């Protein structure tokens, strides 16, 4: 069991400028996910192919305060041919999950190949481990304005969610990202695996898009 839940406790985030530290990759369009034993590549593949995910927060609503609260959020880690591995979001303080995050930024984000046609085409149920999923845990942070990162986030999200461009400014939407603390992958029988962050952000060549 210990081997399945590997830890990497001494990771230090990169200190180089944003455009150097993002570890973006040019996507090589591929029809199938990576082999299940290449878990870092699988994690990046799922994150890049997912346009949305289930985000779980600690509820701040009085009736269910402190309970887990799951919701859907649109995400993007890059344009269709670029992948950073960082899920970006365009969220409003009017939304329940955002209210939770502004009080307690800790959350988990679940993404699955069931969001694509892959599992259905392979006749694999979404709950089957072979219908690979990744659960990212960390803290949601607002992306700083007037930076190259906010330009990246805007391009990443608006290129894959064009309707966002017309969302009302009066709702106070802003760009945010998940600062990842743990990457857990379940893509085959035998239990989940934890991917060290350095491996996740430097997975080598990955055929990203289904």
Structure explained in plain terms:
The chain has 210 residues and is an alpha+beta fold. It has a single domain (18-201), classed as Electron Transport, Fmn-binding Protein, Chain A (Pnp Oxidase, Chain A, Roll), CATH 2.30.110. The protein has six helices and nine strands, in the order αβαββββαβαβαββα. The protein has helices at 18-21, 39-49, 96-103, 118-121, 148-160, 197-201; strands spanning 25-26, 52-58, 68-74, 82-83, 88-91, 106-112, 133-142, 174-186, 193-195. Strands 2, 3, 5, 6, 7, 8 and 9 form a seven-stranded antiparallel beta sheet that branches. A two-stranded antiparallel ribbon has the order 1-4. The radius of gyration is 17 Å and the shape is globular. It comes from Gryllus longicercus. Belongs to the CREG family.
Based on the model shown, name its key terms:
210 residues, alpha+beta, Pnp Oxidase, Chain A, seven-stranded antiparallel β-sheet, two-stranded antiparallel ribbon, 9 strands, 26% strand, globular, disordered N terminus
| Poorly predicted runs | 1-29
Q: Mean pLDDT across all residues, rounded?
A: 87
Give a count of the beta strands, DSSP E runs of length 2 or more: 9
Report the CATH superfamily.
Answer: Electron Transport, Fmn-binding Protein, Chain A
CATH architecture descriptor text = Roll
Number of helices: 6
Largest sheet: 7 strands, antiparallel
| Helix amount | 10-25%
Radius of gyration equals 17 Å
Total discrete domains: 1
CATH class: Mainly Beta
Instruction: Tell me the distance between the termini.
Output: 32 Å
The backbone outline, from C-alpha atoms, is globular
**What structural category characterises the helix and strand content?**
alpha+beta
Order of helices and strands: HEHEEEEHEHEHEEH
CATH topology (fold) name = Pnp Oxidase, Chain A
Family: Belongs to the CREG family.
Domain CREG-like beta-barrel: 34-202
Protein name: CREG-like beta-barrel domain-containing protein
Subcellular location: Secreted
């Amino acid at each position: 069991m210990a081997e399945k839940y590997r830890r990497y406790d001494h990771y230090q985030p990169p200190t180089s400028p944003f455009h150097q530290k993002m570890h973006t990759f040019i996507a090589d369009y591929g029809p199938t996910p990576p082999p299940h034993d290449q878990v870092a590549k699988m994690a990046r593949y799922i994150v890049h192919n997912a346009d949305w995910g289930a985000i779980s927060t600690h509820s701040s609503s009085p009736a269910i305060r402190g309970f887990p609260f799951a919701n859907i959020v649109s995400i993007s880690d890059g344009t269709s041919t670029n992948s950073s591995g960082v899920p970006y979001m365009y969220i409003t303080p009017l939304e329940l999950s955002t209210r939770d995050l502004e009080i307690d930024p800790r959350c988990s984000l679940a993404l699955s190949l069931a969001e694509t046609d892959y599992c259905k085409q392979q006749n694999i149920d979404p709950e089957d481990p072979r219908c690979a999923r990744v659960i990212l845990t960390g803290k949601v942070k607002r992306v700083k304005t007037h930076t190259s990162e906010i330009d990246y986030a805007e391009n990443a999200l608006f290129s894959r969610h064009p309707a966002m461009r017309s969302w009302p400014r009066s709702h106070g939407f802003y760009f945010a990202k998940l600062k990842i603390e743990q990457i857990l992958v379940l893509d085959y029988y035998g239990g989940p695996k934890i991917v060290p962050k350095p491996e996740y952000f430097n997975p080598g060549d990955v055929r990203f898009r289904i």
